[in-house]
Write a structure and sequence with these properties.
Helix content is 4%, strand content 16%. By secondary structure, it is mainly β.
Length: 196
C-alpha cells in the first residue's frame, strides 16, 4: 500500500496517506485524507470514491470519468471542482478558495457548507439534497430544482427560493427570504431569524 502511495503521488512526496480503503486489486476507493503532501490528484482508472479531505496543499483534481463520490472538505487551497459527468455525490465543505461549482448533470447530493467565497450554485437537474448553509456570497439559486427533496440555505444572501415541487425539508434561517410558496410535499420547515 505504501509503495502504491509513493508511486501515485511521487511528485508531491505523499508519505502519510491513510489507505484504509485501498486494495491493490481494487482501485475503486482511495483515501488520502489529511495528507499535506498531496498537491495534485491524477486520474486513476476505475476510481469511484475519493476522500481527500483536509489535504491542505491540494490545488487540483484530475478528471476521472468513473468517479461517483468526491469528498474534498477542508481543502482550503482548491479553487475548482473538475467537471466529472458521472459524479453523484460531492462534499466540499469549508473549501474557502472555491468560487464556483461546475454543472454536473448526474449530481444527486451536494454539501458545500461554509464555502465562504462560493458565489453560485449551477443548475443541477438530478439534485435531491443541497446544503449551502454559511455561504454568505451566494445571493441566488437557480430558478428550479425539479428533484430536490432537501434544501438547507441558512446564513446565505439568498432572498428568493427556487421552484422545488418535490421539496420535503426546507431550512432557510438567517436569510433575506420574504416569501415561502406553498409546497405540497413539505414536511419540515425552519425559517428562524429571517430579516423580512
Amino acid at each position: 500500500k505504501m509503495n502504491f502511495c509513493i508511486n501515485l503521488y511521487k511528485n508531491s512526496m505523499c508519505l502519510f496517506c491513510n489507505w484504509e480503503d485501498y486494495d491493490e486489486d481494487d482501485n475503486t476507493k482511495i483515501n488520502c485524507q489529511g495528507c499535506s503532501g498531496v498537491k495534485t490528484i491524477p486520474c486513476v482508472n476505475g476510481m469511484k470514491k475519493l476522500n481527500c479531505c483536509y489535504c491542505s496543499n491540494l490545488t487540483s483534481i484530475a478528471v476521472t470519468p468513473s468517479l461517483e463520490i468526491l469528498d474534498c472538505s477542508g481543502c482550503t487551497t482548491i479553487k475548482a471542482i473538475p467537471l466529472i459527468p458521472g459524479l453523484k455525490k460531492l462534499i466540499c465543505m469549508r473549501c474557502t478558495s472555491l468560487k464556483e461549482i461546475p454543472t454536473l448533470p448526474n449530481l444527486e447530493h451536494l454539501d458545500c457548507r461554509e464555502c465562504r467565497n462560493l458565489i453560485a450554485i449551477p443548475e443541477l437537474p438530478k439534485l435531491s439534497t443541497l446544503d449551502c448553509s454559511i455561504c454568505p456570497s451566494i445571493r441566488s439559486l437557480p430558478p428550479s430544482f425539479p428533484n430536490l427533496k432537501k434544501l438547507v440555505c441558512s446564513q446565505t444572501s439568498v432572498n428568493t427560493l427556487p421552484e422545488t415541487p418535490m421539496l420535503e425539508t426546507l431550512i432557510c434561517s438567517v436569510t433575506k427570504i420574504r416569501d415561502i410558496p406553498a409546497m405540497s410535499n413539505l414536511a419540515l420547515l425552519e425559517a428562524r431569524h429571517c430579516e423580512n
